Fold each of these.
Amino acid sequence: MAAGIPARRTPGSRTRPGLDAERVVDAAVAIADAEGLPALTLARLAAELGVRTPSLYHHVDGLDGAHRAVALRGMRDLGTALRDAAIGRSGPGALTALADAYRAYALAHPGAYAATQRAPTADDAELRAAAERTTEVVFAVVRHWERDDEELVHLVRAVRSALHGFVALESGGGFGLPAPREASFARLVGIQLAGLEARAAGGAVD
Amino acid sequence: MAAGIPARRTPGSRTRPGLDAERVVDAAVAIADAEGLPALTLARLAAELGVRTPSLYHHVDGLDGAHRAVALRGMRDLGTALRDAAIGRSGPGALTALADAYRAYALAHPGAYAATQRAPTADDAELRAAAERTTEVVFAVVRHWERDDEELVHLVRAVRSALHGFVALESGGGFGLPAPREASFARLVGIQLAGLEARAAGGAVD
DNA sequence: CGTTGGAGACTCATGACATTAGTCTTCTCC
DNA sequence: GGAGAAGACTAATGTCATGAGTCTCCAACG
């Protein structure tokens, strides 16, 4: 009634399997990463957790809710990874570290990364905030080459596009030839770097 | 039995609704483009064609087959669009035209373009061939900056990544800010161009 | 120490889809 | 005119998502 805290259970005693939202999302991410995002169904998730499907509705808001939770987790973790990578660096070193961290996250968590895309970020403040927190890091790094805010937006989009495109193609099996992908990624980053430098030096590259 | 051509109907008389594989794929592409790839279900497709779901199995191999057919159509049309755009140009002009055509196709056919991704190109010779035909054009254009075949692979991957990343983010609503996307795309292409030029001029940009 | 409230799991029921099997109609060709 | 197949249909099955209502156990409170 006039309750304040809703009677938390002491954190050692549980009812049945003792599910909670975090454990559900953990399992969802694990399934999505290991078997692909489409494999993340409520039935699969329930089986994984040793529970019946309807029970999941106490912890996530249906299938969409599960996907959203995975996306949120992914976006937050990606943002953290980028932030950590960029700390203490600037300019080319920062961009390279950022790029490597980006790719490393996407490869380590393909399911969560994929969930991150197709984000209905419009009416979802939490997801939107996480996405912004991630983009902020890119802004901070790219600002080294461009002071003007409006122009900066374009450059950030370009860098994000390059990174996203690469990891999307890579994890989707889009690179058919046997050439080492690491080297390709290095060239991609190198091109971005050279492009940014040329831009900063020579002016408008349009 | 010993037939050669399987008794094509004269192309004006039809049985019932007179479906054939091409009409089915046309409708599938239309649905995917208009309502998103996930909206392409057999039920939806059958309704669109005024037919019952099982009837579709005479023309496409189930839902997967429908998705594959859309992907194949998309890959072929994209390849043709790129080829047309690159004809009669070379160097920066060719790359710009290629990029514009790429983006135009993805915007005009978001569903077909999306189907193009997540391609199980491995065991599908037809789809593989279409993908190669598309990539060939990029190879031809980028070769202007790089003669060595092995190195060329990396550069082509970089260019494809940039293009794909941009259109994927764009059509997925990944660009939150109101800045004009055309300008962002122009910067993206400009950066690639500057990067390729710098590379060709100065040597290894790694 | 018994009562009560709620969290969390369950069973049951419904509806959308995909997919397979078997049937029927209607051209087209001989 | 008849054979045969192309192409559409109905019926049946299985997987999922989702909602409604039920049961059980734990914890705090009297």
Amino acid sequence: MSCSPEKRKLVEEIGLHFEKTHQLAPLAARIYAIMILSPKEGHTFDEIMSITEASKSSVSTQLNLLLQLKKVEYFTKSGDRKRYFRGNKMYLKNTLESYLVNISEEIKIVEKITTFNASYNPEKYEKIGKVPMIFKEYLLRQEENLKSTITKISEIQNK
Amino acid sequence: MSCSPEKRKLVEEIGLHFEKTHQLAPLAARIYAIMILSPKEGHTFDEIMSITEASKSSVSTQLNLLLQLKKVEYFTKSGDRKRYFRGNKMYLKNTLESYLVNISEEIKIVEKITTFNASYNPEKYEKIGKVPMIFKEYLLRQEENLKSTITKISEIQNK
DNA sequence: CGTTTAGTTCGGTGAGTTCCGAACTAATTA
DNA sequence: TAATTAGTTCGGAACTCACCGAACTAAACG
């Protein structure tokens, strides 16, 4: 049984974080946390059940969701009917790519707001001045930061 | 009555965005969107009711929530019993500051994961190599970007 | 063949959320 | 003083969500 109290505590904490940042149900977030904390060897379905203390059906549903989202993958061992689940090796890259989508959405929203204000509230728009522009510049820098980080990670993982 | 079909559509769209990014109920998110699209003049309670087509009680509850979160503020006009609601002038700065909190949390989480893996899974940790380090560098750059943007906005708004 | 293993699928259930109407309050006006 | 205005508060209806148990399937084993 591979679960120290320390790991259990970390699973709880990282789970809470993943619930927010990846918009996952509590159980899915905890399963994902378990995967991240065991980078290579993989866990069986039963191990996940016993660590999370959740039911078979819940583990099945949430695990399939994580597989579908490509946050988790599995491998098999010959002469062993079980599947071994682990975090997708590209999980950090995938995380960054989803951040990139969010940033692009936010840039579009900011553009729509400034366009609207410029044409419908020109006099008020003048008063707000440079703030939306500075915000957009911030978003563009962040987009750049994300893109270059994704490239760096890809270079390492594809070699 | 200050509500073109274009504005209504934008309110819907930005509302959906705010629901996710600010974790607000649909109605609260729409009210906040209305405030952002009218930077200065302010809307009365009744205007908000008629734009959102929501009930008095719902508008009251969600508006008070937004006031409490300092996303919205109000002013009054002498000889007029109504309150005029508008987006908090510091809303972009406040938004960025909440991002900053999230980034700091994420940095802590990444540190905990790498520490855990370094001590409990040293051999696997070796194989993942530089990826978590690159991720942390990305987060630190983003933190820096946020901090300098907040400073810029403060300089403009405090003068 | 019957049984075990490794899951999946279905029909709830309990908790939480979002919104509403109705009754209320507190200040203002006629 | 009665009525209006500008909200607030309360109780509940309708809905969603996360999870569960029980019954199921499909492959492998004895």
